[in-house]
Amino acid sequence: MIRAAVLAGLGTYVPSRVITNDDLSRILDTSDEWIRSRTGIAQRHWAPPGTATGDLAVEAGGRALKSSGSGDVDLVVVATTTPDHPCPATAPGVAHRLGLNAVAAYDIAAVCSGFVYAMASAAGAIAAGIADRVLVIGAETYSTILNPEDRTTSVIFGDGAGAVVLRAGDPSEPGALLGHDLGSDGSLKDLIIVPAGGSRQPVAAVAASGDRPAETYFQMEGKPVFRHAVTRMVASSEAILHRAGWAPESVDWFVGHQANVRILHAVADQLGIDRDRTVVNLDRVGNTSAASIPLALDDAASRGLLTPGDRVLMSAFGGGLTWGSTALVWPEIVTG
Ligand code: ACO
């Protein structure tokens, strides 16, 4: 029988420092009205300088382990766009700090689709018998890669981390992930990019002046990304609904990547899911990239929206371009 990956724990963490739209409008040519009406975002959390992604990941990971009722896992997967270092991966250090020495640990780089990719990777490891319990963490410190002079990106992203524990179980159990749909289109890789800092353009090649070079900051072409996000999330969600045998109107909660409330509503409309069934927490945390879906799940669970037995559809889209979806029936869990 296929070993399914079953949701057994959930925990999140956001840094305490809140940056409001008004805070940003004091340093950038923008306004609370523009940001709210174009994105739905009212505020985001930015970690204090000196904080790394691994620090947020440890907090969320510890809470997810506690929520699962056991500190015992044999694999840690960290999805992030903002790793602690170009080398090594962030996951081994996080595993060590959580007291999980000697477990397998690696990172996944799929930008805003990272958490969905990481859950698929963990589910594959469980199905193959490589792991019995996996800690999957999405964690980001976008504040470290945002260009403070770029109003088109600085107003959108926030820092945070979210984690789940997946355990081996039966596909018919509540909490079992009901398949995975993943995809990419690398011909559009330049739409979301940090140009320098990798092997294509080493930092040394652009760091002639004392100022931080613009090429080391995050860049995004918002308009085409918006269009592709809607198209790909709709098609990917439809593939998962088909696999799960769910009609769109039977979905209790659509938990999409929290990029822009207009994207979430457009996807819900095209799928035939009522907008009221869309989980939205981006108003309070912004776009937290790989941390977005677990933060939205935790927010919905703690607000009492998600209740055991609910049908939950998750779909993400991000740089790469990448996209992915999965679904589950919400289990009995106490979130951390
Ligand atoms: N404040 C005020 N004005 C602004 C701001 C700002 N912060 N940013 C842009 N503008 C201006 C522009 O300069 C432009 O002015 P112009 O008409 O004079 O040229 C105008 O507002 C409209 O700009 P657009 O970019 O066309 O605005 P749009 O409605 O497309 O919204 C946004 C921009 C919010 C970025 C949107 O395109 C979007 O959400 N895109 C998708 C992002 C996304 O989904 N990302 C997912 C993946 S992210 C990842 O993987 C890391």
Automatic annotation (TrEMBL):
Catalyzes the condensation reaction of fatty acid synthesis by the addition to an acyl acceptor of two carbons from malonyl-ACP. Catalyzes the first condensation reaction which initiates fatty acid synthesis and may therefore play a role in governing the total rate of fatty acid production. Possesses both acetoacetyl-ACP synthase and acetyl transacylase activities. Its substrate specificity determines the biosynthesis of branched-chain and/or straight-chain of fatty acids. SUPFAM superfamilies: Thiolase-like. Keywords: Acyltransferase, Cytoplasm, Fatty acid biosynthesis, Fatty acid metabolism, Lipid biosynthesis, Lipid metabolism, Multifunctional enzyme, Transferase. The keyword Transferase applies. InterPro entries: ACP_syn_III_C, ACP_syn_III_N, FabH, Thiolase-like. Belongs to the thiolase-like superfamily. FabH family. The gene is fabH5. Its main location: cytoplasm. HAMAP family: FabH. It catalyses: (2S)-2-methylbutanoyl-CoA + malonyl-[ACP] + H(+) = (4S)-4-methyl-3-oxohexanoyl-[ACP] + CO2 + CoA; malonyl-[ACP] + acetyl-CoA + H(+) = 3-oxobutanoyl-[ACP] + CO2 + CoA; 2-methylpropanoyl-CoA + malonyl-[ACP] + H(+) = 4-methyl-3-oxopentanoyl-[ACP] + CO2 + CoA; 3-methylbutanoyl-CoA + malonyl-[ACP] + H(+) = 5-methyl-3-oxohexanoyl-[ACP] + CO2 + CoA. Homodimer. Residues 241-330 form the Beta-ketoacyl-[acyl-carrier-protein] synthase III C-terminal domain. It comes from the Bacteria. One of its GO terms (biological process) is fatty acid biosynthetic process. PANTHER family: 3-OXOACYL-[ACYL-CARRIER-PROTEIN] SYNTHASE 3, BETA-KETOACYL-[ACYL-CARRIER-PROTEIN] SYNTHASE III. Pathway: Lipid metabolism; fatty acid biosynthesis. GO terms for molecular function: 3-oxoacyl-[acyl-carrier-protein] synthase activity; beta-ketoacyl-acyl-carrier-protein synthase III activity. This is Beta-ketoacyl-[acyl-carrier-protein] synthase III. The keyword Lipid biosynthesis applies.
